């Protein structure tokens, strides 16, 4: 493939292999003896809009009219760098994750060869898992994270149904190293109920996911049944961060770095404050709540900010029986993208404030541009060996009742 | 210290780079504007193959004399190589991490003898 470069130059790249790109990750895994303990990655992604998966998912769309729209769009649209025309009916936002090609796996991943013996997404995912020493991963889609802002609620419902069924049948039923928290079409509460009923006990389903970039109040009574169902089933609910440049809140921001850095925490901040101030932790005390892909720096801010206001305005949140920060410390957090300040005492304080040794779970976010290796946790000087192993796997094993996780990564 | 043969001048065009190793040490050797540079291939961020990504001119904001933003452009002189894992950019002439120039990749000495190029690792 010929890559365009600055100054009108080009660079020809003959091949792309994940194992080669990540050979330093494998060296880290060997040096740190990851073979000695299980590593669970609670947030990674595949590209459901790449050619193989997109074509399969479209076949799972029930609505004949939407299916025809998707099929037609996938025939007339332009191919992306990976030879796919995508799902056709997804919202298409402005996205510069690849940094103009600098993060080369974006433009090159379509050229990676697989032998066809297993589903391409399974083969590609296990390659990076093996390189990093990861045994289990909780797999999420990529472009569908934008669906919460789709102007047609029925599109979210249909695509969620199609994707969930495809994921359960084609990936989770087949690959023992994959798990997922299935996509809830949160703009339609009744559809969420049907989703939990249909898929809640399927192999590999260990929770349900709200893609956070959307304008729905989590405290709406319409969601009470959903939370009760998940609480009864012992299935965690996760809120996965995202950005939306089309949201008026970000309309003054003129750079992707601005929208991405704030967007990925913004919606989770909104949902968290609504969740707590409306007393949902008291109404659903056994429902386990997890915040995904917002990093960690926002959490100490929320604890301090909400505690401070609550102490003055207690009468506005009468359902609370303890400080907001105490509820936050009962919640769970994925680690990536973990902000790593030069002064590690700041991060150490963050870990202490969120009870990281029991509430924090490592996540890679691979193959996205800001992924984290397990070493971002393992190399922290203020953690004991047992704390490292808890964050890298033990906490997820407990939260999701994963049982005994053998070492499956081929390091 | 080992002297590792990188290649010959004839096979090393301007803008080319090669990765060589000695034991467990990987070094990226660049030729840019006629000069050779060599740096550790371990990114300061998370250990990615820092020298194996794209070579891109530095992006700059253009600001007018009355301090108004005009546009962005590529620098005519400053050039970086970019770690393909996360986009960390390094100045090809110094090995400095462009996001924080107090930090830099370890550099290695490049020696040319006749038509052959060596790096001291």
Give an account of the 3D structure:
- The complex is a heterodimer of chains A (411) and B (121).
- Chain A has 411 residues and is of the alpha/beta class.
- Chain A has a single domain, classed as TIM Barrel (Alpha-Beta Barrel).
- Chain B has a single domain, classed as Rieske [2Fe-2S] iron-sulphur domain (Rieske Iron-sulfur Protein, 3-layer Sandwich).
- Chain B is built from no helices and nine strands.
- The termini of chain B are close together.
SSE blueprint:
The complex is a heterodimer of chains A (411) and B (121).
Chain A: E1 2-4, E2 10-12, H1 18-21, H2 23-31, E3 40-45, H3 51-59, H4 64-76, H5 105-108, H6 120-132, E4 136-140, H7 153-172, E5 178-183, H8 189-199, E6 205-211, H9 224-233, E7 237-240, H10 256-277, H11 280-283, E8 289-292, H12 298-312, H13 324-330, E9 332-334, H14 344-353, H15 356-359, E10 360-361, H16 375-378, H17 385-399
Chain B: E1 3-8, E2 17-22, E3 25-32, E4 35-40, E5 55-63, E6 69-82, E7 89-91, E8 109-113, E9 116-120
Antiparallel strand pairs in B: 1-9, 2-3, 3-4, 5-6, 6-7, 8-9
Task: For the structure shown, list the relevant keywords.
heterodimer, A: 411 residues, TIM Barrel, globular, B: 121 residues, Rieske Iron-sulfur Protein, 3-stranded antiparallel sheet, 9 strands, 0% helix, 51% strand
| Weakly predicted, low-confidence segments of chain B | none
How widely separated are the two ends of chain A? 29 Å
Look at the helices and sheets of chain B and give the structural class.
Answer: mainly beta
What would you call the quaternary organization?
heterodimer
The best one-word shape of chain B is globular
The counted number of beta strands of chain B is 9
The sequence of SSEs of chain B as H and E is: EEEEEEEEE
- As a whole number of angstroms, the C-alpha radius of gyration of chain A is 21 Å
Q: Can you tell me the CATH topology of chain A? A: TIM Barrel
Show unreliable segments of chain A. Answer: none
| Main sheet strand line-up of chain B | 1-9-8
Number of β-strand runs of chain A: 10
**What's the CATH class label of chain A?**
Alpha Beta
User: What share of residues are in beta strands of chain A?
Assistant: 5-15%
